[in-house]
Amino acid sequence: MRNMIRHLLFAIVIAALAAIGSGTAVAASVTPQQIPAVTSISPGNGALVGIAHPVTVDFAQPVTNRARAERAVTITADQRLPGTFAWHGDRELVWTPDRLLPVNARFTVQAGHTKTQFASNGGTRAEANMSAHTFTVFIPGQAPRVMPASMGKPAHPTPVGTFPVMEKDRNIIFDSRTIGIPLNSPEGYYLKGEYAERLTSSGVFVHSAPWSVGQQGHSNVSHGCINLAPADAQWYFNQVSVGDPVTTHW
Asked: pTM of the predicted model, to two decimals?
């Protein structure tokens, strides 16, 4: 019996070596390395957000294999949604949808062993026309509301594109030093603002600007923000959700 087993094992080894030599692949069992633990996912479980909201995944430890981590993250509604990944440091992964999310839909985010679900709203969006000096808000089922606005002056232009609202601030301080302009500069400012929605991490907001009401609807005089009259800014603040898209164009 022992001799039979030896001959059988010998035959298996010879067959495997022959397969390698002939270029035939020999299957091997590999245990994949796990991604670091996920500490948080945004939007959080049960959140209701706008249709341009990105998904952010934070890891407990630095991620060394980014491709593997990206493959471990899926965002689905009825089917997997197309999007683009970007890294902010070595622990934060941000997924941005290639197009606006479906309205009134429920989404599931799976990141490794962590899962969360959130929903989109009805699809409120806004458009800043820098040539016409207008800010138009579109709420499904309602007539568009067109408001006079003032955007960035030539030296400080408002960026062009579609930006999700990142946060809302009822009261805020606008300090020119945060965008590299000293307070003692002719362009410097330190102002108390109201009804503000952040569009970029570099400091572009939609906000109330009583100091530029005379220019709103006629010329662009801001340092990149979208200036609205106080009543219009308050109305928009009460309608908009984090994740709602704002598109700026000429």
From this structure: 0.84
